[in-house]
Every structure is written in C-alpha cells, then in structure tokens.
Amino acid sequence: IRKLLSIENTPPIQAVIDANLTQVFIRLLYHEIPKFQFESAWCLTNIASGSSDHVSSLIEKDVVTHFMQLLNSPHLEVVEQVIWGLGNIAGVGVAIAVGGPGATFWMILCGLFGMASKFTECTLGQKYRTVRKNGRIMGGAMHYLSEGLREKNLAGLGGFLAGAFCLLCIG
Fold it and tell me: What is the CB neighbour count within 10 angstroms for residue 122?
C-alpha cells in the first residue's frame, strides 16, 4: 500500500479511505514491531497529504490523538514519521478547511515573501562579505547589516540591527 500511496501524480488516497484501510493503519500504530508502526504512520502521513476531505477523514478517526501518543516512542524513525503526519494534518488541509480559499492566497503570499527575503539575504551576504588576510571569509547577517548600512551613512542603525539580530538568534 505504501508503494501505491507513493505514486506522484494521482495516488489512490480515496480508494484507501473507502476500503477502510485507515482503521487498519491506526491499529498497526500500536503493534509491537516498530517497522509496522513506521509503515502505518507513513501511510497515514501520505493520506494526510491529500485534499482537505482526506485530512478531515483522518481527523474524524482521531488520528491526531494516536499520533500524539506515538511521540513518546523510543523509535526515532516512528517519531519522525508521526511528526511529518501531524505537520500534514495541521498544515494546509486545516488552513483551507478553516480559512477557505482565502487561506490559499495568504499561503502563496507568505511563500513569495519568504523566497524574496531569502533571496535578498543571500544576495546581501555575497555582496558584503570580506576575505580576511588569512583567507577566511567573514560575512553573514550581522556583517551585511552593519557594513551595508554604514555605506548609506546609517552606521548607528546598522549596528543596532546587527546587535538585535544577534540577540534574537541567541534567545
């Protein structure tokens, strides 16, 4: 079933739900063999990556509670898979179910803002990096904030923002 749910274009998620296999996967979450726990968590995670209706069917079967209980598992691969599943359940599906189509707009907008800020951060990091006499490269957010704003005669603001960045990273 794992291979069926791994089909990239159109995995048969609805067919798995209609066959009531989710109940089997939930029971296997409590099997004594960790490999069975992992495989069933993996299948439930793939089901949770489907549409909001698929996520709703898992929520109705109380999969979240079962996943939360497995977070205490001594088997890290099971815990990791459960975290992926909880992320899929609490992610896009719930946002769309609760927020409607407007949630999709805001997720796209946040994604574009995140990509633009990462691009800007990488570009500034390359522009304002310096090579020391020993050949080591010095750069990063604190460096480009202080050096870049110093060029614009805003050294005080640059120093403040660099210090604030440092403190926020520590805390």
Answer: 10
